[in-house]
Design brief:
Chain lengths: 218, 283
């Protein structure tokens, strides 16, 4: 498995996989729907899969002395790693923003503030994307567009839901909004719930992907 | 022990069926897998490598692919029509990702092969000629101690000189290192030079699995002056040629009419058998 992960990192990473991590700095943009940052992470997965198809990566990998079902696990573990990094960066940079900028500039008119709850929202978005995209992709690795479009549409719908919640419910507009130092327990709970949902959806996505990939003809 | 044993390999697609294909590759032999386009050569190779789900048994040096796939794959070097992967990557980056999968990787041997093949690791795959790509694939396959080379049309796209050079390399590998080879191709002149045995597929069915000499000795090529003569002689797969008509006849068959007889090559045998569309066991 380690060899497969090393191979993924060496041969299968599109530059955007790393470039889009830097987009975590968008938390410093005033009045911006910060959940969009996580969509870029999804977009980089699409580019990596496209590159893999152009490189004949799946056929190359299947000819190696590895179990076929380990191939999707390795690919998804690398993606999970990158998603973990972007979640961490958003959390850290959001905290830095809260510490550096005046409190009034921390308020986001386009969505929730860059706090722990935002990271929880991001985890939910990424988990949903993983559950939608990967099983469809590994069912037919030559067809990347449809799984990505379905995943992207659902992610944007969810982003819309989070923005509506920010204005429509006190939970999101007051309790989970603003600095981490205010209502810290509630924000930490939102983060934890988000991460649990992310793990559950990603694990289910991974198992479905393994099962479907095992059945395909390369 | 056979290097490769294939028993009842079957794959059903909506419009094509690979039908219970069984053959073996004896140790130290070069076996040519032949047949026209769409005959099932690549499907057979994909089935052997478990790239597609098939029915039947495949064993590599006695190790069943279903039971011990990883150990079996360690002994296989796969050369799939050159090296069509990662065109934008350098050879060194591919080697670094590839080598750790094989505990028996021999870096010294790899470097010697690169030097022998005149390959630079700093080049990108897209900068290699088709012949160079095949050599790179061979270098990777041989450096992990593969005892069985499985090659899917490695010479298609190569010019005659490169094909000659490739055949020389394969012969050298078999003689000096005892490697066994399964080699699919529709360029049968390559096989006339190097193959020991032939596996002939037609429309997904196995029509021959025998030594090359046995197959060549079974038929003779006969040229008739008229179609009536050819029909009367019951020639197989009669077709018009520049001067008269041509068909196959069993080598031991006596012919009374005035005809020209010559040795049949693999090409002749395939062309006339496919023309006859008999689908019968050849040998």
């Amino acid at each position: 498995m380690l060899n497969l992960i090393r191979k993924e990192l060496a041969l299968c990473m599109h530059p955007t996989a790393f470039i889009f991590l830097i987009f975590a700095v968008l938390v410093f943009v005033p009045n911006y729907p910060y959940e969009v940052i996580f969509f870029f992470s999804c977009l980089s997965v699409f580019f990596c899969c496209m590159m893999g198809r152009e490189n004949g990566d799946i056929a190359f990998s299947c000819a190696l002395p590895v179990k076929k079902e380990h191939i999707p696990i390795a690919k998804m573990l690398v993606v999970f790693g990158l998603q973990g990094i972007v979640l961490l960066l958003v959390g850290i940079l959001g905290a830095v923003k809260g510490a550096v900028l005046p409190a009034e500039q921390y308020v986001n008119q386009a969505g929730i503030s860059a706090n722990l709850a935002l990271v929880g929202n991001g985890a939910v978005l990424l988990g949903v994307f993983n559950l939608i995209f990967f099983p469809r992709y590994f069912k037919s690795p030559d067809k990347i567009g449809v799984p990505f479009v379905i995943g992207a549409v659902v992610v944007f719908l969810l982003i819309g839901v989070f923005i509506v919640l920010r204005w429509a419910t006190p939970l999101y507009s007051v309790t989970l909004n603003g600095l981490n130092s205010v209502n810290t327990g509630a924000k930490a709970a939102a983060l934890t719930i988000g991460i649990v949902i992310y793990i559950a959806m990603s694990v289910i996505g991974c198992k479905l992907s393994m099962r479907r990939f095992h059945r395909i003809d390369v | 022990m056979n290097a490769l044993e294939v028993k009842g390999l079957t794959k059903v697609y909506p419009e094509f069926t690979l039908d219970k294909v069984s053959f073996c590759v004896p140790q130290g032999h070069i076996v040519g897998l032949i047949g026209r386009n769409g005959a099932g050569k690549s499907t057979t190779i994909k089935g052997i490598l478990q790239l597609i789900a098939t029915e039947g048994d495949v064993a590599v040096f006695g190790k069943n692919m279903d039971v011990d796939e990883l150990a079996a794959k360690q002994m296989i070097g796969y050369v799939g029509g050159g090296f069509r992967y990662y065109p934008m990557n350098t050879l060194v980056s591919i080697r670094k990702a590839y080598a750790p999968f094989y505990p028996a990787w021999d870096q010294g041997k790899y470097e010697r092969l690169l030097a022998q093949f005149d390959l630079s690791e700093r080049k990108k795959v897209k900068e290699l000629s088709e012949g160079m790509k095949v050599k790179f694939a061979l270098a990777l396959a041989l450096s992990h101690g593969a005892k069985l080379l499985i090659m899917d049309e490695p010479t298609s796209g190569l010019d005659p000189l490169s094909r000659e050079e490739f055949c020389d390399i394969v012969l050298q590998l078999v003689r000096e290192e005892g490697v066994s080879v399964l080699f699919s191709t529709h360029i049968t002149s390559d096989l006339m030079r190097i193959a020991d045995d032939i596996v002939y597929l037609s429309q997904g069915k196995l029509l021959a699995a025998c030594p090359l000499k046995e197959m060549l000795n079974k038929y003779k090529l006969v040229r008739f002056s008229s179609l009536a003569d050819a029909t009367a002689a019951k020639a197989i797969g009669v077709k018009a040629v520049k001067e008269g008509y041509e068909g196959l006849l069993p080598r031991d068959m006596q012919i009374s009419t005035n005809v020209t007889v010559s040795d049949a090559t693999i090409d002749h045998i395939i062309v006339h058998l496919e023309k006859a569309n008999e689908g019968e066991w050849v040998c």
